[in-house]
Amino acid sequence: MIRHFLLLVLIIFSINLSAQESKEWAERLNALEVKLDPNNKRFELQELNKALHSIWKSDTELNEIMRHTKKLQVVKSEDLEMVVVAFGTNTYSGVYQLEWLVSYAGKSWSYSEEVQITEAKSNVPLIINITQKQEDIYSVSIHRGKKQLISASDMVTKGLFEDLQMLTEDTQKDSLNNIIEKQLMRLWTDKEYYENTFSQLKRMKTLHSKDGRVKVCTYNIQKEGFKQQFYGAVIINDESIIVKPLTDTSDKIKSPERSTLSDKKWYGALYLDMIETQSGNQTYYTLIGYKGHDEFMKRRVLDVLIVQNNRIRFGAPVFKTDRLTRNRVVFEYSAKATMMLRYDTNQKMIVFDNLAPADPMFRGVYQYYGPDFSYNAFKFSKGVWELKKDIDLRNPKRQ
């Protein structure tokens, strides 16, 4: 009897404590209205996000908060499985800071976004929409008046990518990535999503060819010992959607600059840009990629993708350097250095830092290489990317 009484007292105490925390949280949100310092506002919004992530256990806490403030917006999906919560305020001039949280299947994720706005008023309401496209695929959009702040095609995959970054063991990462790959395959194979840039999946880079025929999605996972493993797919837009999942076999490719590869034998990279060129009837999709780094070296790559009869091939003898012609170009340099490698749309060239050893005695030992403040470029002519040395660049951007 005494045990039951003590349990009842504990439950009542927990409910009262939860109600008090919810009320205090709402009062902090309301108090933002009178704050003037934008840095203070930014900090407080982020702290409120963390606090809500901790307080929010069920609808009870949200209902209690909404008793004390109208500045929190809450929307549920039609199947009641997903809940999206959002709040925010103007910080700097022309900037709105949105804090939003998502709950689904026992998981919760929180996000913070700064969005450029033209509406100066601080009391413009947030509008949240959740649309269930397929089982486990929910798109979410958040508007502030007519301004779209967020458009996420698949909130579950977005959240799983966030979970992936928190794991430390390779076995855990591999297990979760298997789920992510299955989820992505559903998006990749659906023609409705072909034009989608998946901009809210920030852990994955998505590139579209200008001719509308090819889409390339890539992402990486850092494994133990600085090992980088790459994943993704080439999606071909034909009469139907054809998906070619990519298998990273970088460690087994002994001569990457001379190798012709396929989707099943891929020199994995996170592709940051795609340049489309034509020679005769052949279209070349040249890819600028980042291969990550270990404790000594970074690597970047120029590769080329060819699509024929709905088959794909990586690598072709189109990179002409001095007397050599390579299937792809691999840049290796010190992990402490930064290298500029980008496509210059004005000059229509791939421009990059010339890499050299810090001392001539380290020639060929790439962990001691870095930019020497001169620049080279590849310019496409007569079916090949031809090397141009010592070009003049103004204000190059490094990555």
- How much of the polypeptide forms β-strand, as a percent range? 35-45%
- Rounded to an integer, what's the Rg over CA atoms? 26 Å
**Helix coverage percent:** 10-25%
Which H/E pattern describes the elements?
HHHEEEEEEEHHEEEEEEEEEEEEEEE
Silhouette: elongated
Could you report the average pLDDT, rounded to the nearest whole number? 91
Structural class: alpha+beta
Domain module count:
2
- Distance between termini? 68 Å
**Biggest sheet statistics:** 6 strands, mixed
Helix tally equals 5
Tell me the total number of β-strands. Answer: 22
Task: List segments where confidence is low: pLDDT < 50 over at least 5 consecutive residues.
Answer: 4-17
Strand order of the largest sheet: 17-16-22-21-20-19
- Quaternary organisation: single chain
What is the gist of this entry?
By secondary structure, the chain is α+β, with helices and mostly antiparallel strands. Helix content is 22%, strand content 42%.
Q: In words, what does this structure look like?
A:
This is DUF4468 domain-containing protein. By secondary structure, the chain is α+β, with helices and mostly antiparallel strands. It folds into two domains: 16-152, no CATH class; 158-391, no CATH class. The protein contains five helices and 22 strands. The strands form five sheets. It has a six-stranded mixed sheet, with no helix packed on it. Helix 1 (2-31) crosses helix 3.
